[in-house]
Amino acid sequence: MSVVVACVVVLLAAGTPRAQSGIAHDHAAPGAAELSQRGVFERVDGAGPGSETPSAADNRLRWLIFHLIYTDEQLSCYAPGGAMGARFDLFQFEGFPGTQPQGYAVHIVVKDRRVVLMGVVGTEGDRQLAEARVREVPGDLLVENLIAVEPDGQGCRQ
Question: Angle between the 56-70 and 82-93 helix axes, to the nearest 10 degrees?
């Protein structure tokens, strides 16, 4: 048992992998300076640093909506890696309250069962479909759809 505890202590002391450590290098891709300031996640609760963490119920609801939107056959093209990428991100990152992995077109904000969708999609149909997916969640939700439609109306970015 002490060997397991020692391994856990060593892993915790080692910190996070370099990709998530926020260390910027001269040869890094554009945007590395920004990532070094805020990490690999975006805060999606609409609040700045020092804000309260969303409740566990709000966080579960947000990840359920994330799953409904980004695993939808039509909307999955807005997820990096498609539906499979969204499932992977859900599995890997759901333990980080108030965050959403980078690169997703629609940001989901949940506070006291009030859902706000923000972002940009390619068509009005995609905008309406994202809202329809949110309304599939059982119970009373107040849904505000602030998703904008790209002027060219070309649909998903492939």
Answer: 170
